[in-house]
Amino acid sequence: FKNYDIKNEVYVIGFILQFIFTGRKNLEFKGDNLSEIIAKCTDKDISKRYENISSIIDAIDILQQ
Hints:
This protein is mainly alpha-helical. It is built from 3 helices and no strands. The chain has helices at 6-22, 33-41, 53-63. The N and C termini lie far apart (38 Å). The model has no long low-confidence stretch (mean pLDDT 88).
C-alpha cells in the first residue's frame, strides 16, 4: 500500500456511479456525459483519473443542470 492514493478509490467510485445511475454491474460507455465521467474515474492510466472526490461531484452536478 505504499503507493496507495485517492485515485485508487476514484476507480471504485466509477463502478459505483455506473450501478447507481444505470443499474448495470459492468462498465459500458455510450459516449454520453455520464459515460465520460465513469470512463475518467476508471481510466487504466491513474494520472488521467479525477484528482479527488470533489471533482467527481462537480462533474455530476453539471449533468443535473
